[in-house]
């Protein structure tokens, strides 16, 4: 793309200081203030989350500039300051075509800032081609400003502090690079993003945590969509196994969470925590479907080691813990963050917020570690796909289809797989395939009261066979683990 400014500037250094940027910003903001005010933020599908960010208020470090010869520029020396300054020149901030006449560094920066503001306003309003033109021209003009390397490497982000307030949320350089791409999302990807947006809005409504503003929502939608794409492209098999396993435990989760008046979709936390494996154990010795550590588990009624692997007991403990966290923080998103990172850390982050209205998940998100920031969009991604896997390219049976294929029974601790297969009239390999928690090396069921898929119509035969041997499970075989109606 041709630049508005094709003339090469003379080699002239200019000492950039924060006050100079604010000066440019005041001038440009005065002219363009109406451009950004009241606009609804619109982020393109697949645009990086870094396009929108809240930058810390940090002064721009002034680099040590190289000496300039008197032949290159005639400086005006202030003997009291010992600083070389360029002669003040009138600044033309009109975004019009310029002539080939040489312009000063100061003029070039002012023009680049103005075009950056124009480009961000257009990007914000959805005028993508115009935004591309302005940000590209601003980039070329910025390169011609002949800044010291320490400043030039920051690209258009050098202007961050001088932008109008609602444009400071953007990453101008990232947007410019994105708009230069030739592989922008097509119609199918945009349609998929629309489905993701609807799913995220639905989940936030169910959780009772609407975003504090559209910029937060767009950011969350983008991150959720990114996790969905990761699952589709690189983690498909793991998702499929976990989704099929989920059907065993979902009725119990629905029932227990309903007692605590918790949304059932919070159950997708177990998707991320353990991949719905009651026998899961983390490197930090967190155990079971809900990954309780020993101390927290004991606080919520998990006494013996087998309690941590027991689906119903651990689910009741998780529901009780989430109920306490939700009441403590007044937010289910904060409760989820506290479940991942610990309530003490979340409390510390909230104490850093002066305004009560900003003491929310959205207000402290920048205070959270990366794992906790990713935790919520990961859960939302699994929940959005789980609501209708076929929309995202997964040919997976729903609960109704699974109920037609399998009975769910609960078997005693350490029951021989060969014996269970014999009672069910199938081979051991079929049992393992249906019950992905079972490893190839397992010869018996793990833990106590293990929920197991057996072929439809065979559940009663297996239960009867175990009863004859007085190997009855200690809970009712079908009870709360029976498949719930769709």
N-C termini distance: 55 Å
CATH topology of the largest domain: Lysozyme
CATH architecture descriptor text of the largest domain: Orthogonal Bundle
Structural class: mainly alpha
Mean residue pLDDT: 78
Assembly type of the shown chains?
Answer: single chain
**Describe the biggest sheet?**
2 strands, antiparallel
Kindly provide the radius of gyration, computed on alpha-carbon positions and rounded to a whole number of angstroms. Answer: 30 Å
Strand content: under 5%
SS element count, helices: 20
Assign an overall shape: elongated
The total strand number stands at 4
Q: pLDDT below 50 for ≥5 consecutive residues: which ranges? A: 1-15, 36-43, 53-100, 473-486
Instruction: Kindly report the spatial arrangement of strands forming the biggest sheet.
Output: 1-2
Helix content: 40-55%
3D structure, described in words:
There is one protein chain. The chain has 486 residues and is mainly α. The chain is built from 20 helices and four strands. The strands form two sheets. It has a two-stranded antiparallel ribbon. Helix 6 (187-207) crosses helix 7 (214-234). The two termini are 55 Å apart. Residues 1-15, 36-43, 53-100 and 473-486 have low confidence and may be disordered.
């Amino acid at each position: 793309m041709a630049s508005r400014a094709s003339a090469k500037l003379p080699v002239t250094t200019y000492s950039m200081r924060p006050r100079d940027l604010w000066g440019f910003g005041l001038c440009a903001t005065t002219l363009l203030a109406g451009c950004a005010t009241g606009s609804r933020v619109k982020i393109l599908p697949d645009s990086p989350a870094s396009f929108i960010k809240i930058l810390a208020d940090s002064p721009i470090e002034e680099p040590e500039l190289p000496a300039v010869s008197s032949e290159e520029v005639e400086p005006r020396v202030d003997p009291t300051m010992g600083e070389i300054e360029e002669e003040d020149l009138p600044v033309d901030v009109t975004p019009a075509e310029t002539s080939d006449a040489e312009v000063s560094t100061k003029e070039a920066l002012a023009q680049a800032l103005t075009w950056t503001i124009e480009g961000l306003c257009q990007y914000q309003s959805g005028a993508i081609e115009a935004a591309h033109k302005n940000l590209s021209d601003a980039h070329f003009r910025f390169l011609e400003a002949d800044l010291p390397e320490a400043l030039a490497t920051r690209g258009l982000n050098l202007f961050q502090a001088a932008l109008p307030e609602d444009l400071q949320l953007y990453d101008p350089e990232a947007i410019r690079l994105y708009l230069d791409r030739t592989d922008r999302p097509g119609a199918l990807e945009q349609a998929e993003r629309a489905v993701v947006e609807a799913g995220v809005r639905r989940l936030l409504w169910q959780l009772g945590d609407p975003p504090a503003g559209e910029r937060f929502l767009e950011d969350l939608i983008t991150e959720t969509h990114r996790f969905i794409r990761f699952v589709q492209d690189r983690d498909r098999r793991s998702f499929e196994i976990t989704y099929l396993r989920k059907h065993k435990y979902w009725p119990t989760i629905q029932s227990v969470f309903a007692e605590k008046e918790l949304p059932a979709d919070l159950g997708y936390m177990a998707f991320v925590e353990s991949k719905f494996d009651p026998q899961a154990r983390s490197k930090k010795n967190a155990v079971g479907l809900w990954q309780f550590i020993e101390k927290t588990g004991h606080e919520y009624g998990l006494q013996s080691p087998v309690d941590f692997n027991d689906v119903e007991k651990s689910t009741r403990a998780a529901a009780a813990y989430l109920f306490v966290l939700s009441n403590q923080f007044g937010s289910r998103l904060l409760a989820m963050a506290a479940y991942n990172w610990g309530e003490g850390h979340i409390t510390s982050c909230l104490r850093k917020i002066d305004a009560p209205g900003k003491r929310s998940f959205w207000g402290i998100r920048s205070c959270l570690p990366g794992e906790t920031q990713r935790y919520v969009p990961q859960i939302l991604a699994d929940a959005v796909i789980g609501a209708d896997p076929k929309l995202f390219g997964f040919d997976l049976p729903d609960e109704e289809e699974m109920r037609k294929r399998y009975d769910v029974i609960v078997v005693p601790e350490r029951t021989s797989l060969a014996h269970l297969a014999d009672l069910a009239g199938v081979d051991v390999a079929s049992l393992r395939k249906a019950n992905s928690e079972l490893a190839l090396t397992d010869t018996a069921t793990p833990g106590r009261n293990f929920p197991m898929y057996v072929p439809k119509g065979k559940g009663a035969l297996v239960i009867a066979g175990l009863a004859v041997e007085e190997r009855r499970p200690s809970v009712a075989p079908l009870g709360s683990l029976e498949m719930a109606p769709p």
